[in-house]
Amino acid sequence: MIAWFRSSLIARTVFATVLLSALALVTLGGFLSFTLANGFYQSRLATVLDETERAVLNVQNTVAAASLTDETSLQTLVNSVVPSLEITTGSGARQVALLRSPGQPSLQLLQSPISADLDLSAIPDELRETVRSSGDVLSYTPISLIKDGRQVPGISVGAPINIPQAGLFELYLVFDLQAEQETLEFVQGVLIVAGVAMIVAISLVSYLVTSRIVRPMENAAGAAQKLAEGKLSERLEERGTDVIALLAKSFNQMATSLQNQIQQLDQLSRMQRRFVSDVSHELRTPMTTIKLAGEVIFENRENLDPALKRSAELLQNQISRFEKLLADLLEISRYDAGAVVADIDLHDLNSVVGMAIASIEPLAKSKKVEIRVELPNKAVEAEFDSNRIERLLRNLLSNAVEHAEGKPVLVQVGQNRNAVAVCVTDQGVGMSKQHLERIFDRFWRADPARQRSVGGTGLGLSIAKEDASLHRGWLQVWSRPNKGSSFRLTLPKRTDSVIANSPLPLPPKQVEGE
Amino acid sequence: MAQKILVVDDDDALREMVGLVLASSGYHPVYAADGFTATEMFREINPDLVLLDIMLPGQDGIEVCKQIRSIAGTPIIMLTAKGETEDVVKGLEAGADDYIVKPHQGAELLARVKARLRPFGSEATTVAIGDLQLDPRTFEVKRGNSQLSLTPLEFKLLHTLATKPQQVFTREMLLDQVWGYQYKVDTRLVNVHVQRLRSKIEDDAENPKYVMTVRGHGYRAGSDFS
Fold first, then answer.
1. Of A172, A196, A223, B144, whose CB has the highest number of CB atoms within 10 Å?
2. In what order do the strands lie in the sheet with B211-214?
């Protein structure tokens, strides 16, 4: 659920919109409700004060106008005037109370007339004190009343009244605000319903609007992903002229040009592979005939006169040189065309090294170079193409023997948890740093004047480097002028793994110490 | 009488040159310049061995190889100018016993030919592996009364494994003992022929019982035939 929410742009946008709108609506509703409540209260308060003023004046005037002779008539007057101020029904309902201020000489007869159902707690002591100390001004306080079992807001207003012969009294009128409260509640109800409807509407609208924008983006994202996966024919629907349509159009243009480029490259690579294959066939067939014919002549050279004999020898040598060059050229072209497939299997590196050394032994003997070998006692197993690795090692070995200047060549094999390595080290001429940088370049020779007796083609190390990277391995070199050179090949034990570090040091410790 | 070798190559010069090399060693070369002629010639003269170029006009070498295999187990050595993995494998899967990559030496060619024409040692005896009976005098493999048709090479491969059922043969050992190679290491040669052999003798080639793979080492004869 959370993951879905995180991944769905629409869900998040709609959620944020609804949340923010709800916040705004609640704020607005609260403000409206507060303003209305205040407005209702203030307007009712003005009426209430007005009515009270008239009532007080009425009582005052009535009492003043009457010619009162005794307490009984005063009581009668008060008893008739005060209750007449009471209104029991309708929205202007009010209750009344005439209370004697405390600290007055008490009169036996004068009773305080109070509305029948008035709860005296509606006239708090604080109000009474304010009334007593206020002179002629009206004082009021908001209160809450219990009416029909419900709590409703109300206002108590009071004014002091001086009754001759009887002393100081306080006249209170208690108004309830039930009508205003009901109106306010109705308005609040309407506001809530409207707010909820509004939120539903907003969420719907924001969903529709977001979808209209996000859907095409999602489509574009999906198409881009498919394109990245290699489905080059993936396109977007172009509709209208808006920015979405522009996106789709640009995407499609990009995809088309990408598709064209890849097709072109593909075709080029196919053509090159085809070319390599054709050249291979076309050159190799006459080459084979020449070679076989040359051999026949060479084998019978003893029967020829000296000039013809020497020619047969030269022919034979140059045929094999030409053949090597041809083979190397074809091999490097195969790499260039990406047409090389390794024949990977599990092999013991020790035995491959052994075979490579065995094949280079005759050359080493003729050059009087000793080959020292340091192999681990147990098998060094790894997945590789034994033909290619043996060829690579033969190449390193013949180079080492060639440049060893008669000093021994050291071959080491090592392994660690996820890699195996072979290091071929000579103590011969070595190379300068500038030479070292170009060592793997095609047809590059450290010393152009130097004639190689093995007839290297100048492609050996380039192919070796390609062979190493075909195995996701490393071919590294260390060299110092007049100290010697060291070539280290590191291969992963499993073709799908990555080498972290090589099991053998470069340069080898023996050399480093010198 | 000299052994007849059918040389199939569309290149006139090479065909003639190969013929010269073969003739100098006492073989009797017969020539065909294209695929159709090759199959006709094969039926007509029934050679002891076929040297077959892969790239041929009309019917290519792979096709010729399949046709010859459908009628005979005669040794076939492919000559390939490409040396590309897929062509070699295709040729071997079509039934070729061995292959030589051009340009090759005359000596190499003769060694390959000789190895394929070398008769079984007279000391070879009848052996059994599971319910299979192998008779080296007739190159016959029998399961009960029904006879399985193996090429001489496939027979030799199975016979070599069956003779020493306890031994694990590395691919190099098999190349030496079955193909007669001394130094060359080409695991494809062994792998493809083991697959072909399995498809002929195993009930389920994916789950072999007669020729078992020993990963990282090679093959051995099966011992569990329950």
1. A172
2. B169-170, B218-221, B211-214
